[in-house]
Design goal:
The complex is a heterodimer. By secondary structure, chain A is α+β, with helices and mostly antiparallel strands. Chain A is built from 9 helices and 20 strands. In chain A, 23% of the residues lie in helices and 36% in strands. The chains are: A alpha+beta, B mainly alpha. Bound molecules: adenosine-5'-triphosphate and magnesium ion.
């Protein structure tokens, strides 16, 4: 008991320690270590087949790690059966019980709970209220629409007030509008109940809106963990930089380092570039300079001479998206650079300042660019 | 277009005639007043009356029903267990052998099944004194053995097509594997078990060969009785008996069809309603 109260103050609530899962000779999850805090909304983001579901299933207890261990609330989960874990899961396919009504589905987890029939009924009603399905209580799952089924699955997974809720692509089957609406509902519910949520998704926008922190997975390995801002503004590798949003990369070598800034000779840019660096670099290292399209200023005239990173090119393509425009600019070296510009003034087509085949200057601040180490294969 | 539909229609008529004319002829002759099977001697229900007074026939029919019910029930239980094992135990050593052996009775000729079961019963009797003699019990055991395979196959195919995450969800919500089986798996595969039971029931009711091998005194099933009677020549009371069986079977099939159609229509209505409501604005928010 004393131990238990100790762990309550521990910010680390779920600890995944060097967990590896092999199916035969294939490694689905490769030496993953993660700490997740109490009440956090944590997203696992990655492409198809990278091991997200497998990691989630190990947390729920449906798969046993080949090596490593998982601790939840200070308790080692090795050998603990799924029905004994303080964890509930919302399945990718919803997995509703087809032969039970909505009410019975939601109340199923309460059957073994120590409560009277009246208490159980109240709890089910409360949950159905929360997901706005009270008038569908007597329906069977096949009599519901996709969005309603998704809400039944959520209510059922929340019924036992688990310490951790695992959600495997919870919004995968919904259309875009319903998706956005449900994202906010999920965040509200999580905020109100204070349960730790681990959400699996392959949709980067969804991860960015939902999560407190995101882990980027790639072929069984965690590539980066951080807040959405961290991951977007300070990617630690070309992989994450490319995976989240779009980015321009200039390969080059470090020429000099001075006061947290690196000077890089980048043949593709046609000149030396200056950028912030977070990593221990030394002169001569092969690196990439990464700049997000919206951090680049596009102009017809030469920028003020104080701008360090300025390159010249020709507009190859122009896309108008209403709130912003996207330019593709071809540099003298042949490299293509994407630039986006917010349309903060109302201009007709004739007034457009930069047009097709215009010669333009691109410039950006040293602080807006980031230096990434060369990708390990 | 016109020609083709005439052709198709005549093929259809021919096909149906092929299937049903023999049965209709048999039914017609069951009302024949003449004792001779091939001569029409006027309308009469005499043979039905005779049939109902024939204790031998009634006893055989009741025995057949009893054997069919008991063997179908046991075959369903054992077959379901086998199906569960095949579908859910994953890869265990000898799985291929096990599944092959389960389905062997499906392709084994009845004569061989019957003969080998007879050998088994005889040698068991000499070894441990059980079963003492052959009769209804040994027929029941034999029927369980061969119809179990059918149930196992039906149940297994239902289980493999079933979404396994439903079972995981129940376990995730705190149910032990045994509870999951009872609460979730069995209700979901119940329709497959019922069709397995019905199949086992008809297989048992229908079987002549295996029953002939494994039966003994006091174990004459209806097919055995009919067959032995027919050996002495077809009599109109057998036609009457066959007519009654055909009528009962038809009634059963029609009833099952109506029930299935009704629930299907209900389901479609429900789904339409759900979609309409999902499309309409939610009443709770206004
Ligand atoms: N039971 C299993 N046996 C063998 N290989 C498996 C098993 N489960 C998963 N895998 C493999 O492990 C890898 C990771 O699978 P996983 O389901 O975790 O992917 P995921 O990240 O959830 O992908 P998705 O976004 O498509 O759902 C895949 O290559 C898959 O083929
Ligand atoms: Mg998955």
């Amino acid at each position: 008991m004393a131990e238990n109260s100790d762990t309550k103050t521990d910010p680390v609530f779920i600890r995944i320690e060097n967990v590896t899962k092999k199916f035969g000779s294939f490694t689905a999850v490769d030496n993953v270590s993660l700490d997740i805090g109490r009440g956090e909304l944590f997203a696992l983001l990655g492409g198809s087949g990278c091991g997200k579901t497998t990691l989630l299933r190990m947390l729920a207890g449906f798969e046993a790690p080949t090596s490593g261990r998982i601790m939840i609330d200070g308790q080692d989960m090795t050998g603990v059966a799924p029905f004994d874990r303080p964890v509930n899961m919302m399945f990718q396919s919803y997995a509703l019980f087809p032969h039970m009504s909505v009410e019975k589905n939601v109340g199923y987890g309460l059957k073994h709970e120590n409560m009277t029939d009246a208490q159980r009924k109240d709890r089910v009603r409360e949950l159905l209220d929360m997901v706005q399905l009270t008038q569908f209580a007597a329906r069977k799952p096949h009599q519901l629409s996709g969005g309603q089924r998704q809400r039944v699955a959520l209510a059922r997974a929340l019924a036992k007030s688990p310490k951790v809720l695992l959600l495997d692509e919870p919004l995968g089957a919904l259309d875009k509008k319903l998706r956005e609406q449900t994202q906010f509902e999920l965040m509200n519910i999580q905020d109100r109940l204070g349960i730790t949520f681990i959400v699996v998704t392959h949709d980067q926008e969804e991860a960015m809106t939902l999560a407190d922190r995101i882990a980027i997975m790639d072929r069984g390995v965690i590539r980066q963990v951080g807040t959405p801002t961290d991951i977007y503004e300070f990617p630690n590798s070309r992989f994450t930089a490319d995976f989240i949003g779009s980015i321009n990369l200039f390969d080059g070598t470090v020429a000099a380092i001075k006061a947290g800034k690196a000077r890089i000779t980048a043949p593709a840019a046609g000149c030396a570039l200056e950028a912030d660096t977070r990593y221990g670099l030394s002169t001569g290292d092969k690196v990439s300079v990464a700049v997000r399209p919206e951090k680049i200023t596009i102009s017809r005239g030469k920028p003020r001479s104080t701008a360090v990173n300025a390159v010249q090119g020709e507009v190859l393509d122009l896309g108008y998206f209403g709130k912003d425009s996207l330019y593709r600019v071809k540099l003298a070296s042949g490299a293509l650079v994407r630039v986006s510009k917010v349309n903060d003034q109302r201009l007709s087509e004739a007034d457009r300042q930069v047009d097709w085949e215009d010669k333009v200057w691109l410039s950006w601040d040293a602080r807006s660019a980031i230096v990434l180490p060369e990708e390990r294969p | 277009m016109q020609k083709r539909s005439v052709f198709i229609l005549s093929v259809l008529c021919f096909g149906f005639a092929f299937l049903y004319v023999p049965i209709l002829i048999m039914m017609a002759y069951s009302f024949n007043a003449s004792r001779l099977a091939t001569v029409w001697g006027g309308f009469s229900t005499e043979w039905y009356g005779k049939l109902l007074q024939n204790d031998q026939v009634i006893d055989a029919a009741l025995l057949s029903l009893r054997i069919a019910v008991v063997s179908a029930t046991f075959a369903t239980i054992l077959g379901t267990l086998a199906g569960l094992t095949l579908a859910r135990l994953g890869r265990f050593k000898g799985r291929t052998l096990f599944s092959g052996m389960i389905s062997a009775p499906l392709i084994m000729p009845d004569v061989i099944t019957g003969l080998s079961l007879l050998m088994l019963f005889v040698s068991l009797e000499t070894l441990i004194g059980w079963p003492s003699g052959r009769g209804a019990n040994t027929v029941t055991l034999a029927h369980i053995t061969f119809s179990m395979a059918y149930v196992a196959i039906i149940v297994q195919s239902r289980l493999t097509s079933m979404d396994q995450s439903v079972e995981e969800a129940a376990m995730d919500l705190g149910s032990t594997p045994l509870r999951v089986l009872w609460d979730i798996t069995l209700p979901i595969i119940a329709p497959a078990m019922i069709s397995g039971w019905l199949l086992a029931f008809t297989l048992s009711l229908d079987d002549l060969v295996i029953a002939s091998f494994t039966s003994g005194p006091g174990g004459t099933t209806l097919p055995m009785l009919i067959f032995s009677k027919v050996k002495l020549g077809v009599t109109p009371d057998i036609n009457a008996l066959a007519t009654i069986i055909v009528c009962i079977v038809t009634l059963g099939v029609v009833l099952a069809g109506i029930l299935m159609m009704r629930s299907e229509r209900q389901r479609q209505l429900d789904e339409q309603r759900a979609q309409a409501e999902a499309a309409a604005p939610q009443p709770g928010i206004a």
